[in-house]
Amino acid sequence: MRPQLFRNNTWDRRLGLALGAAAITWVWLVALPWLGGRPELREDLRWRAARGINAGAMYYTELEAMPDIAAHLDELHERHAEAFWRVSERSPEPPAERAR
């Protein structure tokens, strides 16, 4: 039999809920920002942004294919740079911005 710390289980449940919420908050506000500041992850995010890849819109099934996709996009960009707007620093500006 477990020792009863409180008069009823309501307090146990509230304490468990509070601890769970605190753990989620810590992960969201401390651990994830710390990981996002790591040089390896920052470089990966820059690489994706330079190619116009929205990491939030990716499915896990696409991750293995990313090197092939990136190589294909680079090849297309070299052949048809005018078809891609702001994919990378080499890209031409869209027609609307060229007229300014």
Description:
The chain has 100 residues and is an all-alpha fold. It is built from four helices and no strands.
Brief summary of the model shown:
With 100 residues, the protein is mainly alpha-helical.
Structural class: mainly alpha
Span between N and C termini? 78 Å
Which percent bin holds the helix content?
55-70%
Shape: elongated
Order of helices and strands: HHHH
The number of distinct helices, counting runs of at least 4 residues, comes to 4
The overall pLDDT, averaged over residues, is 76
Features:
mainly alpha; 100 residues; single chain; 4 helices; elongated
What is the fold's blueprint, element by element?
Blueprint lengths: L8 H28 L2 H12 L15 H14 L15 H4 L2
